[in-house]
Specification:
about 425 residues, alpha/beta, Glutaconate Coenzyme A-transferase, 14 helices, 23 strands, about 25% helix
Length: about 425
């Protein structure tokens, strides 16, 4: 079989692997759209991955398949740091791209994809399939890939969205049932509950929210059950949103617009039955103009550390990359252009041992600035809320020091006194 074959030919995922050749670029969806069955097929014929470049947006802690280690000449183009990429990155076999989601979208469009693989639902009578849980980047890649492959997975729900695939537009159709990537959220804590409650106080009925994944965003959603007429417009939604639908805080068709859904199997099944959810690709979810046009849009994002100027680091810990730029910048920018919009950043005041402050005098060596000082509207820790809009440089620092652990505030105040005399 060659790259230019007749449309809609049935095959197996092993057949797809046998088509691989050195120099090819293969797009693999990430998050809950990752095909675990295709990864298993790759492992059954590791020699076919030699010289192949895999590309996709895979998230640390969620996507754990190690493509770059299948062969010692396999390469990968990545947009988030994952722990298993570090050895290959030192060998020069991983290109880690410092791009936000709109930048990653443009990078993928220009990547000259040889094979794009989509994990999709079973077809409807019109022979169209749904992208199910993951609409983010595949629609853009699909338009320009030389070969288009779908895995029909009975476990993938048929969801409502702005993009669908017609089987006649495919080169290879592979039927394979396999588990979907799930992401259980860990237990909350008293500190997270306190942060979530402070955040909830900043949310008004009728607001449209953007949140990420993890224990803190889940805790925030849990704290919003008393609100009404909320909507979600986000790059990702998790199963923590379901209780808000069930209690009436979120109601109405397409009240949740997202590019990706991530949770457990029960959540995925619900996506195919609940018209509350509507899916759009990154070209729509992360369009700053679309976001800005939504009134009362509130971006809620976690941070690794924040300095006394209000600069936010959400990607680097002690000099080590732990994530990527991601979708946060577009939502923060959009929130600040939205009428009555707000950008909220949340973090624990200290590291897990309670001895190191995550409110720091100034971001420096070992940190990255993921959001500049002028984009921080509201900062929240378990010790309170700092409203930064309209404050002077010194007033902002004073308010941020009050968010630190009480025992560490004096030291921060002394450090700030030295900094401000050098300004």
């Amino acid at each position: 079989m060659g790259l230019f074959m007749r449309r809609a030919q049935h095959a197996t995922l092993d057949d797809v692997v046998n088509l691989l050749a050195p120099g090819m670029t293969v797009f693999l969806p990430g998050l809950s759209g990752e095909s675990l069955a295709f990864f298993d097929a790759l492992k059954r014929a590791p020699q076919k991955s030699a010289g192949v470049r895999f590309i996709g947006v895979h998230l640390p802690g969620v996507n754990k398949s190690n493509y770059v280690d299948i062969s010692n000449s396999t390469t990968q183009r990545a947009y988030f740091m994952q722990p298993h990429l570090r050895p290959a990155m030192e060998q020069g076999r991983v290109d880690l791209m410092p791009l936000d989601y709109p930048g990653a979208l443009n990078d993928l469009i220009n990547a000259k994809i040889d094979i794009a693989i989509g994990q999709v639902s079973l077809p409807n009578p019109a022979a169209t399939v749904s992208l199910g849980t993951t609409y983010d980047f595949l629609p853009a890649v699909w338009q320009q890939a030389r070969m288009r492959v779908v895995q029909l997975n009975p476990r993938m729900p048929k969801t409502c969205g702005s993009f669908q695939i017609t089987l006649n537009d495919c080169d290879l159709i592979c039927e394979a049932e396999s588990p979907l990537v799930t992401n259980p959220v860990g237990a909350s804590s008293s500190e997270l509950a306190a942060i979530a409650q402070y955040v909830a106080e900043q949310i008004h009925d009728g607001d449209t929210l953007q949140l990420g994944i993890g224990r803190l965003p889940s805790a925030v959603l849990s704290a919003l059950k008393g609100h009404r007429n909320l909507r979600i417009y986000s790059g990702m939604v998790t199963d923590a949103a379901v209780p808000l639908i069930d209690c009436g805080a979120i109601a109405g068709d397409a009240s949740i617009v997202t590019g990706i859904a991530l949770g457990d199997e029960a959540f995925y099944q619900r996506l195919g039955e609940d018209q509350t959810f509507y899916f759009r690709p990154v070209s729509e979810t992360h369009d700053v103009r679309r976001i800005a046009a939504i009134p009362s849009f509130v971006s809620i994002n976690s941070a690794v550390e924040v300095d006394l100027f209000g600069q936010v680091n959400s990607e680097c810990a002690d000099g080590q990359l732990i994530a990527g730029v991601g979708g946060m910048p577009a939502f923060v920018q959009g929130s600040r252009l939205s009428r009555n919009g707000r950008a909220i950043f949340c973090l624990n005041s200290t590291t897990t041992n309670g001895k190191v402050s995550r409110i720091v005098p100034m971001l420096g060596q070992g940190s990255l600035v993921n959001s500049p000082r002028h984009a921080s509207d509201i900062l929240v820790t378990e010790h309170g809320i700092a409203h930064l809009r309209g404050l002077s440089v010194h007033e902002r620092a004073t308010r941020l020091i009050e968010l630190a652990k009480p025992e560490l505030r004096q030291g921060l105040a002394e450090q700030w006194d030295k900094i401000r005399h050098c300004l």
